[in-house]
Amino acid sequence: MSDILEGPTASWLQCYTSNCMGESEVDQIISALKNDGLVLGHNGTLRWRDLPDKPSVLHQPEKVNQQSIGQEDGYEEEPLYVTASELLGSADHFDGSLRLINFASPPAPKRSEAAMADIVVDMKFKCNDKPEDISDVTIEDNHVSLWYFSRSHSAKSRGLDLLDVRAVVRALSALIFSTVEDLGYDSDIRRIVEKDQETQKDQIRYVYHVGDRFFKTLRCRDEYDHLHIVGRATRVWEVVEVAGFDDTSALPNAQLMVLRDVWLEHGSSTEREIQHMIFERCDELGRDFPAPNDDRLHDVDDALREVLRQRLKDGSYRELFLTIEHDHRGALSKPLATGFTPVPDGFFDLLYIYREVKRAGSGPRQVSTPRTSDPPVSPIFPVQQASAAREYKPRQHNFIVYREVCSALHELEDLHDVVQALLDALLALQILFMISWIHRDLSTGNILFYRGRGKLGDLEYAKEFNLSVGRRSSDPKTGTYIFMAFELHAGVRVYQDASYSEDIDAIDQLEAPTPASLAIRHNFQHDVESIFWILTWLVFTHIPGQNCVNAAAAMFHSGSPEFVTSRLNFLTNHVVCHSWLATLRPDLPPILRKGLLAMRVILHKRYINRGNSIGDISSYSPIYGRIRERLEAITASVPQGAVCLVRPPPPQVGVRSGYAPYTETLSNKMDAPEDHMLAPHKAASLKRARGSSDADTVSEQSRAGKRSARG
């Protein structure tokens, strides 16, 4: 389903601007343009003085001068202006723009007409129809389109004629006289420029208004990718509390904290609200801990049962989760305009890469985002779940401030620390299981390491496990693809019923499966399986000096047509799993291979033994203890310093930017195999400067293959 919608210009203006221009105001503007000689009128007909006919008629190919760019099918001038973001490699070419009158940007980057953050609306002119060139206002010959970009959807107007003076005046005046909030700026965020104390150079920072408090960004810890527009987008900053927008000095004794900036569906619970519900349920369970024969404690040994009981009783389970200091619901994206319907996907294939080229990192006006879309699935495993009609719900800006400044798993230098964090995350998952909740979004970016222990973060998509209510969302949003359980991204179950009768007379009596019986619902084991994939990914990609490039590419390059079958084989075929683990560095402790092999067996057997009884709670309870034993065996045999991991360097901060710039070109970004599927905070390990490693080899092989294919 396309995220791009198209509809009437009048509806676009009514919905996506402040819509404060009436007919009398339009008449006054046209009258002023007439007085200036820019608009001519004759017998009630208005026309532009300098544009009596369509541009394609005025600019014939034979009129092109030597400095212009010639096209076989027409004429196109070089854009008049160029802007560059503070992010390296990000630029936009345009022919006209609407800019802020008051702004807080440093001088424009070299070769730029203005700072990108201060350009509210840019405009592009083309004599030919070239849909890959997309801007806020596009003029293709005499056809004018207005564009709206947001986290929930993007909307393109139709039916506006450049030669229609009144229509053009109405559209431009609606944009000019709209509030900055209606044009996409967030009043809860202010962009400032400060001198960096170390470099004494200008640096961009942001001040967030979070409820009744203010926080200033110091360093970007987590940046989202820029290949997609629609969906959830997350930035994570180190922040310090300040007095306000106008006094940005740190408050006395202010502690370094972390702010998470994310867009969620309007009406959905915030992470703080979800955490509060979870903690309430945990406290209730601590006061009335279940008996040993409870299904949730089936086959759980005495030691682990006592750990769970004590954690819930004394409230120490809270140490397994992040401490939320403050949060705030911010601005809303616009609702869907009346009369807008989806545009076929093919026409706008390149739209999703547009916004990074245009305004990446330009401050409050955030318009790009990663999302977990549905990439191609191997035809061997067709997705069996019917997608519901897409709901274009408004999204709301959410700010969450955490007390702990943690490290993500992919930032750690020691395998021992990684496994310890996974052990603590597994205990947090088991506590969620005890209250019948699932996390649904496990990744290396939300299992965190703090002062020697692990913490589980990002509860925004956690929910109660209840088969009698709910459905799989048609708006993909949960999970990092390469860490998701196989069943979730393949759309089929690991377990396949083979108990059919061979009697030919009974064959036609088999009931056809219903959509409900084929649906894959996120369950408790899916969260545990993510732990397995996270550890496998880190072992295959973060330990230097290995010869496992093919295995790593097969399992963690989700664009590969072998991705689904490779992961199924690794999960369910002991021979395949053993052979790929044999490609790891031979001097690694043997327990590492044995532990991953054992976890594979545990997961596979549980799927088979459970069959179709996914509502059987007792079938999940043993898995936590079984996986825990294997992780504990690894920590016991892999002490601190035994297996070092490759850690990404600190973010390379630009001269005037408060966040890490991207040095890759857009072409290189599209060629990269998996580093951008993870989103930059999950891909940093694949982009860092380091010695030769498997991730680099995968990337270089992918690029070399594509260069060869292009000739």
Automatic annotation (TrEMBL):
<protein>
    <recommendedName>
        <fullName>Fungal-type protein kinase domain-containing protein</fullName>
    </recommendedName>
</protein>
<dbReference type="InterPro" id="IPR011009">
    <property type="entry name" value="Kinase-like_dom_sf"/>
</dbReference>
<feature type="region of interest" description="Disordered">
    <location>
        <begin position="53"/>
        <end position="72"/>
    </location>
</feature>
<dbReference type="InterPro" id="IPR040976">
    <property type="entry name" value="Pkinase_fungal"/>
</dbReference>
<feature type="domain" description="Fungal-type protein kinase">
    <location>
        <begin position="137"/>
        <end position="539"/>
    </location>
</feature>
<feature type="region of interest" description="Disordered">
    <location>
        <begin position="671"/>
        <end position="711"/>
    </location>
</feature>
<dbReference type="Pfam" id="PF17667">
    <property type="entry name" value="Pkinase_fungal"/>
</dbReference>
